[in-house]
Write a structure and sequence with these properties.
Blueprint (H helix, E strand, L loop, with lengths): L5 E6 L1 H10 L1 E6 L21 E7 L6 H7 L6 E6 L6 E3 L1 H6 L12 E3 L3 H6 L2 E2 L1 H5 L3 E3 L1 E3 L2 H4 L4 E4 L2 E4 L7 E3 L7 E7 L1 E2 L7 H17 L9 E4 L2 H5 L2 E4 L5 H14 L4 E2 L9
Parallel strand pairs: 9-12, 16-17
Antiparallel strand pairs: 1-4, 2-3, 2-15, 3-13, 4-16, 5-6, 7-14, 8-13, 10-11
Helix pairs in contact: 1-9
Length: about 270
């Protein structure tokens, strides 16, 4: 993977307010993104709502199209944070034991990732990335229709398998100007609270069938990842070069109240557009 230190996000002052107040970065489902092709597959409908992302760019130089497409030029902002700025959380074997689950972990070392995995399991939600901790991906731009709209369903030994992880990585070359990186996680419902392993497998199979048919509801509408205090305090915020005086007053008040150590850096395009 390309070596980067910082990522940038063009967004509204409303979204910035939520980020500052809650100390979180919000991941939204693919079916809410502006690129409608992203959620498409050749064989399963409505699957994009299980793939949650937050879009950023690695381009340090300000970009006029990005300001116009992803912010209100009169009140938009650009956030700068180090890559993977999230709180690290440890989940121990004892945490799983409290839920009636056993974990094969001879080393006794906790799972160290961005999530409280035990809490996810308690809420009957599963995510592959919860265990790997690898959620930052560089978007690959391509014209290959098989990658842009993949087949994700396979039937093996009479069971349906869905490769949901094939989504969210590829975008059409029309979007290449974005130089996009994204935090991406897949969340699906999983009946961890079933009365037995046999019951859990049966319920999980039914859930996969509903996913395949496009009728399974997602576990939630969005997912928030906490930002570590260190990275939060050192956040850099750039106001839109066309920001109004009223929006600037609101921005200064937000930063003063929720993150007074953050840096407000004036736009390099100020007075030029």
């Amino acid at each position: 993977m390309e070596d980067i230190d910082y990522l940038y996000r063009y967004t509204s002052i409303d979204n910035l307010a939520l980020t500052l107040k809650n100390h979180t970065i919000r991941l939204n489902p693919l079916d809410k993104m502006d690129d409608l092709q992203e959620q498409k597959t050749r064989d399963v409908e409505n699957i994009g709502k299980f793939v949650f992302i937050s879009s950023w760019t690695s381009e340090e130089k300000e970009d006029i199209p990005m300001w116009k497409m992803y912010t209100n030029p009169k009140s938009g902002v650009r956030i700068k944070l180090p890559k993977n700025p999230f709180v690290r959380q440890k989940t121990y074997a004892s945490d799983f034991a409290l839920l009636g689950l056993s974990v094969d972990n001879p080393s006794g070392q906790p799972v160290d990732t961005f999530l409280n995995i035990a809490e996810l399991i308690k809420n009957n939600v599963y995510s592959v990335q919860a265990f790997s901790g690898d959620i930052l991906k560089k978007v690959v731009y391509t014209d290959d229709k098989k990658l842009l709209e993949p087949n994700i369903r396979k039937i093996e030994n009479g069971k349906i398998n869905l490769n949901i992880g094939a989504l969210g990585i590829y975008k059409n070359t029309y979007w290449e100007f974005q130089k996009e990186w994204r935090y991406i996680m897949t969340f699906i419902n999983m009946p961890f609270n079933a009365s037995s392993m046999q019951e859990m497998e049966m319920q999980a199979s039914l859930s996969v069938n509903r996913l395949s048919a496009g009728i399974e509801p997602p576990p939630f509408r969005h997912f928030d990842l906490p930002i570590s205090d260190e990275f939060f305090r050192n956040m850099e915020i750039t106001p839109s070069p066309q920001m109004t005086s009223g929006a600037r007053i609101a921005l200064d008040a937000l930063v003063e109240k929720y993150n007074p150590t953050a840096t407000i850096k004036e736009s390099s395009l100020l007075g030029l557009i």
